[in-house]
């Protein structure tokens, strides 16, 4: 679906046509500005295959944000969103900001954005269409997720610690 390509585009502004399947996990970081506040985005790239489920789920415990990536040109990746969301809710400690990224927006859509928005409404999760290939929407999507996570943290902080 392009998780690794999304990470590389976001952090390094690079695109590799042929990227290797992630085995286990990898991470990169980037400091961004969110409404005048410096935020370190430590982005973990976890394997998407079920055989790595135990590894992936352990990272949900300490995550502030989880980005779920699907391929707009492959319906089955959209149909798996519910499984990913349920897994995150089961394994995350406390409140985690979730965002869905519809990758490969430069390709012909098999899944329309309106359908994804309708599906995600029950979860209160935003969706952004992106293209790791040409960079469309990548920075905006991560900026939105960072804003939501910061707001969530401020709302859940004890009074006086905001």
Automatic annotation (TrEMBL):
<dbReference type="InterPro" id="IPR005225">
    <property type="entry name" value="Small_GTP-bd"/>
</dbReference>
<keyword id="KW-0547">Nucleotide-binding</keyword>
<dbReference type="InterPro" id="IPR001806">
    <property type="entry name" value="Small_GTPase"/>
</dbReference>
<keyword id="KW-0342">GTP-binding</keyword>
<dbReference type="InterPro" id="IPR027417">
    <property type="entry name" value="P-loop_NTPase"/>
</dbReference>
<protein>
    <submittedName>
        <fullName>Uncharacterized protein</fullName>
    </submittedName>
</protein>
<dbReference type="GO" id="GO:0003924">
    <property type="term" value="F:GTPase activity"/>
</dbReference>
<dbReference type="InterPro" id="IPR050227">
    <property type="entry name" value="Rab"/>
</dbReference>
<keyword id="KW-0449">Lipoprotein</keyword>
<dbReference type="GO" id="GO:0005525">
    <property type="term" value="F:GTP binding"/>
</dbReference>
<dbReference type="Pfam" id="PF00071">
    <property type="entry name" value="Ras"/>
</dbReference>
